[in-house]
Amino acid sequence: MHKLVMQSAIRKIHFCYGHRVMNHESKCSSLHGHNGVIWVHVTPIKELDSLGRVIDFSVVKSAIGGWVLDHWDHTMIIFKEDTKTIELLNLAPSYKTIFVLDKNPTAENMANFLLWEVCPKLLKGKGIVVHKIVFWETENCYVEESLDPTLIEVLELYA
Ligand SMILES: [Zn+2]
User: Fold this and answer.
1) In this structure, is residue 105 part of a structural domain?
2) CB under 8 Å to 94, separation ≥6 — which residues?
3) What is the distance in A from the centroid of ligand 1 to the CA of 131?
4) Model pTM greater than 0.85?
5) What domain range is 23 assigned to?
6) Is position 137 annotated as part of the catalytic site?
């Protein structure tokens, strides 16, 4: 059933990453980096908690922010079919391992991965759904990906 009013709590997450967009028509096919900003939008499945919150902001910070810090911050995010780049980066000395994504690491595909793979795994069972990811690749360029938090398929992911 659709809600008449939707409340969201939004947590901002900063991180630094490198990537390249495989087969990009111009400069984005070179390895380069960004200061990314992720805005995680959370809505309650039923209602606010007993204190009147969607969720405590610190829960989103530690779950999603922690995952981003561990897996995406200060490393390279590379498409799994970009085998030459993966080989090259595996030869380079590095504190962190590279992150291999199933799709080209565009802001759109990274937002999609957070929304459908990362957030449900880390925030299931908390009475909330992450219904939107806004991903700023730069101050001037950003993408949004959202889902309908009332869909049964989505509720099952968070059950
Ligand atoms: Zn880029």
Assistant:
1) yes
2) 75
3) 24
4) yes
5) 9-158
6) yes
